[in-house]
Amino acid sequence: MLFRDRSINVPVINYPKRKGGKKRKINMQSLSHVWRGPQIHVIQQILSESKWIAVDDTTHIQPISLTPSRSHLSSSYITSTPVLYLLVESPTASTRSALAETPPRSLAFPPLSPSSPTTRSMPSLSDVLLDQAHHLEFESVHELPESHAWPTLHDHPCVSEPVPVIDMADPKAAEFMARACVSWGAFQVTGHGVAPRLLESIDSEMRRLFALPTQQKLKAARPADGVSGYGLVPISSFFAKLMWSEGFTIAGSPLDHARKLWPHDPDQFCDAIERYDREMKALAGRLIRLMLLSLGLSDEEVEWAGQGGELPPDLAGVLRLNSYPACPDPDRAMGMAAHADSSLVTILYQSSTSGLQVLRAEDQNSPARWVTVPPLPGALVVIVGDLFHILSNGRFKSVVHRVVVNRSQQRVSAAYFCGPPAGVTVSPIEKLVGPGRAPAYRAVTWAEYLGLKRELFDKALATIEVPQES
Ligand SMILES: C=C1C[C@]23C[C@@]1(O)CC[C@H]2[C@@]12CCC[C@@](C)(C(=O)O1)[C@H]2[C@@H]3C(=O)O
Ligand SMILES: O=C(O)CCC(=O)C(=O)O
Ligand SMILES: [Fe+2]
């Protein structure tokens, strides 16, 4: 039976059953090759008898109609070897379906037809799929798929300029930080007190995590409406192309994730993550305090951010582990698309492979340009996030940054996003607003701002700007 969707006239097909009547499960991993966003009508090729055929040629297809439910999509479509090639979604998003086949490896990545729509729009229910679907087995791809080829990589020149490096033990550290935050929105710190062994252990835990089979990692997949777990970064839904990276977000205890990833030995991962979290939280407190002092606040005024050395009880943190595999065509691939973080500050461990670039705005002497932040053994990168931009009434700039990839080496990074605790609002510090002026931004909680970022991406900050009377 061939079911034709009322409005788009595409066949909707159930996946084949295994012998014995058991449903074959489907791997969402190759969905990226056909996925084109919420309003898309995907009509692609399928593999049949070792040949790619157009979907409208239904002669080889064994069609059974199906409208999978949300839970259906997230649970039973995950498996070991078969590869999924077709997703059909109606413009009303009420009908969607999938077709599975198990191609030989050599045929795993079919060319997409040039007429395929490539637009993506706002996140929708489709992101249930998106989050679980785009898990390319990077190591087995020898040619960059079109789905991962970015047209906009060379928007600005890439130049080399000395990104500030600040020793936290330097008596002038706060002063240097103020300068770096005003003109760069980022700097590297040394003398931070985080033991090299802890950095080594987080590095090796990340490599152990990302080396797991995709199937295993998907057991800890981030739910579409959740924060924690294996999956795409939320901003992925704003881009027509996929990033050359994978990642894992941990908010709160890592234990549930670790049990899914390593059922027989979750402790090694948990111990490393928990130790790292504690150290990052303490360091974030010290950094924020110095940054606030550098803005001219007194010790009493910065008390809320925690005293130096102590665990600041009231900062929240989310850890994101990233992996950027070696890429067959790095000049056309994007590790992580240009963005600013929502945090107060992000502390980044970037291993020994370069890739992070910060955007320096145009000035009298130079046009806007990408500047690589070179890995410095033992150093950590500090990135000013939007919430600090708000807190400082725009004096410290949240910085747009991105990650480029390379041909020969996997790169891992651990980003610790630090923000205020749940329910606490961030608004411009009165002392920085200036007499007779209104604050440049309205107050927001981190949760509210993360919501704005998910919805509006790079327009989020502008939407909380307060118009100034001239
Ligand atoms: C707390 C968080 C910040 C973040 C969203 C997240 O829940 C975890 C991932 C973070 C990240 C990393 C890449 C860029 C970014 C904009 C995104 O989409 O996911 C940031 C988010 C953010 O800072 O808003
Ligand atoms: O991997 C990196 O160097 C940066 C990652 C990043 O920007 C992020 O996770 O927000
Ligand atoms: Fe970032």
From TrEMBL:
Q: What class of enzyme is it?
A: oxidoreductase
Which reaction does this chain catalyze?
Answer: gibberellin A20 + 2-oxoglutarate + O2 = gibberellin A1 + succinate + CO2
Which parts of the sequence are annotated with region: Disordered? 97-122
Q: Which Pfam families match?
A: 2OG-FeII_Oxy, DIOX_N
Q: Which residues form the Fe2OG dioxygenase domain?
A: 314-420
Q: Does Metal-binding show up as a keyword for this record?
A: yes
State the needed cofactors, names only. Answer: L-ascorbate
Q: Which Gene Ontology molecular function entries are recorded, alphabetically? A: gibberellin 3-beta-dioxygenase activity; metal ion binding
The family line of this record is:
Belongs to the iron/ascorbate-dependent oxidoreductase family.
Q: What is the name of this protein? A: gibberellin 3beta-dioxygenase
